[in-house]
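#struct-pred

JT: dropping the chains for the assembly here, can someone run the whole complex?
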Amino acid sequence: MRSACLVVALWLGAVLLPGACAYADAFSGLGSARPDEMLGAISTLAVSGDPQAGTVLRALGERHLFAAPDGGLYIRQGETCVDARTGQPVATVPDGLKPVRLNNRIRTALAGAQASMALLAPQAETRLKAADALYARHDPAMVPTLEHALSVEKDAAVRTRLMQARAATILAQPAQQDTQDQRLEAVRSLAAVGGLEARGILAGVAQSDAEAPQVRHAAQAAVSSMDWHLRAWSVAQNAFYGLSYGSVLLLAATGLAITFGVMGVINMAHGEMMMIGAYVTWMVQQAIRVSVPALEPVAILVAIPVAFVVCGGMGVLIERGLIRFLYGRPLETLLATWGLSLILQQAVRSIFGPTNIAVQTPAWLSGSVAVGGMDITLNRLAILVFAALVLGGLMLVLRRTPLGLQMRAVTQNRRMAALMGIRTPRVDALAFGLGAGLAGLAGVAVSQIDNVSPNLGQSYIIDSFMVVVFGGVGNLWGTLAAAMALGMGGKVLEPAIGAVSAKIAILVLVILYIQRHPRGMFPVRGRGVES
Amino acid sequence: MNPFSVHGPRNLRGVIWMAVAVVVVAGGLAMASLLPEGSPFHASAFVVSLAGKYLAYAMLALSVDLVWGFAGILTLGHAAFFALGGYAMGMYLMREIGARGVYGNASLPDFMIFLSWKSLPWYWWGSEHFAWAALLVVAVPGLLAGVFGWLAFRSRVSGVYLSIITQALTYALMLAFFQNGLGFGGNNGLTDFKDILGADLHAPLTRAVLLVVTGVLLAASLLAARFVVASRFGHLLVAVRDAENRTRFLGYRPDQVKLLVWVFSAMVAGLGGALYVTQVGIINPGEFAPANSIESVIWVAVGGRGTLCGAVLGAILVNLGKTLFTAWLPEFWLYGLGFLFIGTTLFLPQGIMGLLRHVRKPPAEEVTPEVSDTQGGEA
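RK: done, full complex below.
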């Protein structure tokens, strides 16, 4: 501080007594060949409040600062030169410019000076960022700077961060007897911050022999409690991933479960319906971008009903044109729908090309929120909510509408339902359409988290089958439980044995489970159900 | 309800004709490949290995027909047994390379050195002996089928459920074999083979002999399959297919009947896989892909389910079509295959053999006693 005042006084003097020296200001030391003078100049400039100070220091760090023999300082910007003091371009570049040399000591001082300048910047955001940087650096030399910044800081958030930065910095200094209390306080402050960085510093303190026992114990306690938190959060994070994957599986499998429940057929082209749903999303986005660009952020919402209608319509067509001829031959239906899936894949490949297409994720669905120690990505969260809404809607359709009643009746006993006057062919067609429409919805959801290519359906179909056979048919709760169990199971096993092994383990577990419960977790019971 | 005869393939003569035809064609091609290159009847190495591939696929189709046509089990995972047989043979061929690999290590295959493994894992022990490999070719698929089938049939998993879990089985195996750590070459699988039993795999004579062996083994499997389905056991099998509960109530054990034919079928598939590897020269995890298994089902459907001959015919015809199609119009092959699936199930439920029978005899005689069960929908 004192030297700063001195330099300011000198600078005033220089202004008041023009001609005493060509450049007797805070800048002139920068051109000096003596490191001490340079160091002094740097710290002076940092607190000078001169509008050019930041620019000059940055230029120095980037080695763009040049000194003229007469003490003039210039910043080279490509071909042109700028006078460092005024920021004005100079017409003629003076002769004999020499780059201002840096050594490690000067570089350290320069970084500190820049940080302390940022700490005193007028914008709170800049100050916060500077405090973050100092927290990460925990350079012992910065303690005075931090204390000074703390003494003038008013903003609460910045103050907290500064105190944490100071705590980290204090702990980074070697331990001394008389600083015990200060260090103990710093340990507490850091323990409150959490995070890997703080854990690293505290672990260092906990193992250090030079540390006073109570400081060491406090650090040890802090580290172990932090570890527990980190583990808990990572479990929570995995659970979220599991829920998210489970909700995707749920969306993909409900349609499959409905067609299997009502008609006893497995639709091997179900994955392709998902794929088409994703392509419909893309087409809707393109159409809206061309016609009504203002609506682009909500294109995905428009795509939801469109995909449902398109895929549902295709489903009805498939049932009327193909499946109904194979009634009573579920295994042949399986083969025919497999053939259909090959045709649909190839058709999409011919029309849209074999490569991935770029489905946009709207701004309100991108990014993530941090909840404690876990990251909740917004698109996955949205899919979770979407799956819940779809499931709720489907429950309503099945429980509260005539179609739902008829579908449940046909699921339980087809012949009896037909005798009661239910037009089973119509129910079949609508159920198949509903299943395909649900696949379309799943496609919209998947387009937000996965690559959209003609092969999209293939990557989900086997997992969806697993959900259906695991959960049993004709019961949405079974599908829900199975989807979540498989989604969570995979993600829980993943950290321990790896992604692929987790998948294999899940498949094997489901295969074994089916041996014990051949009709899934929630089998349909009753007289009408065949053996 | 069921379009198939309760007696299995009636015409022993047809099966014998087919077996003879397979051997004659394989033998003829083999001899043609030994002719000098200028000769008009010369068959190139490409044609010979293609023919060998078709015949190996025909064995897979035969094994699928055994379980689908005669036991009513629609398997969507039979390519797993085929690939396991292939890997068992591939292990032996890998060891035959010996010190001629890139790294010149006599006891470790190249990919293990690449993974810096120090010694062979236990399941590779003995793989340098052909006899052991030949045993593994049928034993490994048979064992897996035995465990899987015992669990599945005992708890009466059937119909679509069984189809789905067979698909899950092959999918799980595919994922596992893609792992480098499993010790089967990961992504690349086993390849770069040099010798079999000391004979150069690239020599025309070796290839010709392999083709003949494949033809003979296919013919033998065909006759063996025919023997199985025409025996008392075969009648029981058809009874289980058409009316499982009724058979059970008569005091038979459908689960054991199914298990036996399932294991036998897996062994035939494994043998097919072994012959495939020797002639194609590579086996990789792609062979486990569920799509392959489903394709082998369509071969059977095209040829005619439950006829044995039809499976062989279907496999050869569809694969011939695939080869030609992918050469002329590569992007249309999937359309062709897709329409083949749909067309066969819709319009040709008894396949080519059904069509032939239809042409030879008036349809009125085709009516077989309707056997239906309480389990209406299960075909």
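JT: nice. Chain A touches chain B through 48 residues (CB under 8 Å). The two ends of chain A are 92 Å apart (CA to CA).
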